[in-house]
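Marked as duplicate of an earlier ticket. Keeping the data here for the record.
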Amino acid sequence: MLYQIYEMQRAMVEPFADFAQAASKFYNNPHSVFSQVPLAQRMAAGFNLMYRLGKDYEKPEFDLHNVEVNGVDVTIRERVEIDKPFCELRRFKRFSDDPETLDLMLSQPVVLIVAPLSGHYATLLRDTVQSMLGGHKVYITDWKNARIVPLSEGEFHLDDYVNYVQEFIRYLQGRYGQCHVVSVCQPTVPVLAAVSLMASRGEVTPLSMTMMGGPIDARRSPTAVNNLAETRSYEWFENNVIYEVPNNYPGAGRRVYPGFLQYSGFVAMNPDRHANSHYDYFKDLIKGDEASAEHHRKFYDEYNAVLDMDADYYLETIATVFQEYKLVKGTWEVRNEQGKPELVRPQDIRNTALLTVEGELDDISGAGQTRAAHDLCAGIAAEARQHIEVQGAGHYGIFSGSRWRKTVYPQVRDFILSHQPASATAASAAGHLSSVSDDGPELESNEAHADKPVKTAKTGQNSAPAQKGRGSHRARA
């Protein structure tokens, strides 16, 4: 009933939020008589803050329309390459009519960014994507809100997450010959599992994998997140944070960990910081500091937008990663697309370079949790492994903000380039300058489907158009 109560409360607050927004405009508009009354600026600021505290936050857009590549402004076109029940593989395709820039883009590495499925949308990595678009062909996993996924699409488990990642890697390998993988926070665990399973089967693995601020070994330097998972039983989580989606959503009846409960947990970790931030916003509005106010709005438009997670996936993650430590103990078995269990063996990875990144002040994934991947991936040569500790950076600072752009990204870029062999560059650049995009020329069979995402079943099998696209790109390369 909690979900239904929340929806009722939200419906009741919505008219007041709309009223607060209108009142703020009345007091702030210089053409309104209300703007001439005493304390009008304070009234406008107060109503604006009330509106933002009460409004509903929808999924944000990436809103990336151009990027600078080697000093030249390049156009970005966003599209969905693969549409799966719980995730979209989203691509940011770059276009330029400058021959030298196009030549450069054609030769740049292909990167799959695996975004977290842990409350916020993939747009939380907007800064990560924007930086990497300057030197890479970028794809990202855009996870769907479980409350909009109908029950007819089936369940979603941690195993499905791992299988999705493998499918996306194979798709990029089929299209370009190779790829690199970057995972941020939560997906470091399923990404390591996905690459491990591919290595154990003898499949071609990514050229490199970059793991940033993730709980590979949650036993090290436990944080408040780890302590909560350890002190509460699996049954406690199932009984206290899992609810059914109400009837007013497409996913009605699906068991989920609701986004509003996750958001409450985020805020509870640093309540004073959020209270001070909102008070500073109020003061900025009074002072007329629009730049600072807009910075606040952009951050909280992202931070306040949360999604529901499928209950099976969430509970299995709690048990596997934070309670039983199956990955580091070598006991984790993942069911493949055919339903057969396979043991996750990171020691089987040999041909994929490994970079781990941690923030000195990370209060989500403690020191050493991500670095533990090096101990597990003993089969990777020492010269193909690297670790970065970002001084003064918290959890978000390692993938967003000035520290990411000035300190972390240059090292990630150089690491990826150092493990980009000439053969992979040649395959990526096949077709050379016959096209205005970073993908080279498209064969006629692909042009007809250029803007149509490949829809796949829950099992992770590619449909016929996807296989046709793979074959065409192989022929081109």
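See parent ticket for discussion. The longest helix spans residues 2-28.
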